[in-house]
Amino acid sequence: MQAFFLSFYNGLVQTTWIEMIAVFSGIISVWYSKKENILVYPTGLLNTTIYIYISVKGHLLGEASVNMYYTVMSLYGWYLWTRVDPNKQTIILQITKSTVQDLRNQLLFFAGFYIVIYFSLVFLKRAFAPEAIPWADALASASAYTAMWLMARKKVESWFWWIITNIASIPLYFIKGYAFTSVQFIILLILAIAGWSSWLTKAKTNNSHA
Description:
By secondary structure, the chain is mainly alpha-helical. It has one domain. 79% of the residues lie in helices and 2% in strands. It is built from 8 helices and 2 strands. The protein has a two-stranded antiparallel sheet. The longest helix is centred in the last third of the chain and has 31 residues. The mean pLDDT is 86.
């Protein structure tokens, strides 16, 4: 236990300023997401662009691909979240729960990405990145791909996938020496649980109004 805390402390001491910026912008972005505030996207873009660099440097190639995907989906989500009904002058996209068919699609979406990322990382581990952890990296990455897709569409279940991403990412980044980022994912896990509760309430309100 003492060795764990010593390793954790050393990781915090070695945290770079660029990692700190990424961590704080990521936490702020998730906070805005919980509030259904459009600022989730500009703050999120700052976080993802920095983490592309950090992930490649740490041989977390699956996570690097996730952050590239985040960047593209952030622009897509930014567009969807700002669309206004010209007649009612209200935001078109509202928070809703997934249907049974939506849930099936989410599982297929996740499974497809997990398989592709896992076997890609197995190949890359042998050829270029011996420090890669295929199964854990693929789990964190595929669940994050699913979560970001659903968040852009304002689906409550996006938070379920964020919870999986955060749980998988806490040890993944700690093992790679990014202790401060691990702390970020602990905070994000708490925010994801709170976000799920908040969006569930809003979805029920939107459904009753509909």
